[in-house]
Design a protein that fits this description.
five-stranded antiparallel beta sheet, 12 strands, 12 helices, alpha+beta
Amino acid sequence: MVGTQGPENLPKQVNLSEDAWMDVLSAVDRTYADLVDYQERLERQNAELQEMRGFLTSILGAISDVLIVVGRDGRVQQVSQSVQARTGQPVSDLAGAAIQSLFGTEAPLLSATFEAIRATRRPSVLEIGLVTPEGPEPLELSVAPRMDERGRVSGFVLTGRPLGELRRAYAELQAGHDALKSAQAQLVRNEKLASLGRLLAGVAHELNNPISFVYANAHAMERYLSKFETYFARVQGGAGREELVTLRESLRLDREIGNLRTAIDGARDGAERVRDIVEDLRRLSSDGSGERIGFDLAEVSRVAANWVMRGRREPVSLRIEAAGPVPAFGRPGHIQQIVMNLVQNAVDALEGIASPEIRLRVFAEGDRAVLTVSDNGPGVPPAAQAAIFDPFFTTKPVGRGTGLGLSISHKIAEEHGGRLMLVEGAPGATFRLELPQEARP
C-alpha cells in the first residue's frame, strides 16, 4: 500500500534522531565550555582590574606631590590624597569640579596652558598657586596631555611639587654648602697656622738680627750725642776759640760726625729690614678669604718659599727662577699656602740628602701662570702617587704631618680654576701648579 512504511525503514529513522540529539548535546557542551572559559577570563580580568584599582588608589593615597587627572571638559576626574590634605576639600567633592576652581585668580594661566598643549600636544611646566585655607600655595606644576586612540587630546594630567618644600630644601643645601666652605676655610687657616708655627724660630732669628743692629747703632748715636752736648755746652758757656779747638780734638768730633752718619744709615737699614720682614709676615698670615684679585705669582712664591727656609736649621739651597713678574688671578693668601706646603714637603724629603736643593720656576704658558717646585730627594714612591692628594694621606712618620697639606692645596687650585699635579718621570719630586692669569666668566 502506498504510504505504508515497512519494517526495514524504522531503524534508520531512529538512528537519525539519535545522531541529531548527540550533535545538539555536543554543541551545548561546547557552548557551556566556552561560557565557563569566558567567565574565568572575566573573573581574571576583573581581579586584575580590582588589583590595578587598588594599586592606583594606594598611589593616589601615598603620593606626596599634587596629582590631578582632568577630562576633556576641564573637570576633575581623579586627585591624590595630597590635594585633599592641602585644599581641605574631600576627594568626593573634588571629583567633577572645574579644575580652574582649584587655582583661583591664576586659573586663566592654567586655561592658556591647556590651549597651548592642545595645539602642540607637548607637556608644559608653570608656576601657579593652589587654593588652600591658608592662601595660595605655590606649585611647580607639570601639565601633560592625555591622548585617545585617534591622537586627540582627551584630557590632562597635572603633577605639582610645592615650591615651598623645594625652597626649604635649597636653603638647607645652601646652608650645608656654606658650612662646608667654612670648614674648608678653617682647615686652610689651621694648616697655615701650623706652617707658621714651624717657622717661629726662623722668624725670631730674622727679626733679632736687624733689631740688634738698630739697638747697637742707637747706643752708638747716644755716645756721639753725649760728646756733642759737652762741646755745645762749652760753646754756650763762652769758652774761647783755643779751648773749643782743644775740646773738639779731644772729643774727636770730626771723626764722630762721620760715625754718626754711618750709625744713622745703619739704624735706618735695620728698621727697613724689620719693616720688610713684618710686611712679608703680614701678607703670609692673611687668610686670603677676600675677593680674588690679580697678583704676581713670582712675588707670592718668593715670599712663601723664603719664610719656609727661614725656619730651617740645616742648610738647603733654594733657587727661584723667574724672568719677571708672572700675573695670576686668585686669592694670594691661599696661593701662598700652596707654595708653603710644596716647599715644606720638599724640605722634609731632603733630610739626610747630600747637597739638598729646591728649585722653583715661575713662568707663563699660554693663558696660564705656572709654578713648578722640584727637589733632588728620593721622589714619591710609585705606590703612593695615586693617593698623594687624598686627605690625611702622608708618608711622613707619625707626628710629622697631618696629611692635609697636599689635599688642601689640590682643592684650592681647583677652586681657582687651575690644577695641581705631580709630574711623573722627573728626578726627585716635581709638583706643577697652574693658575689662570685673569678672571674667567
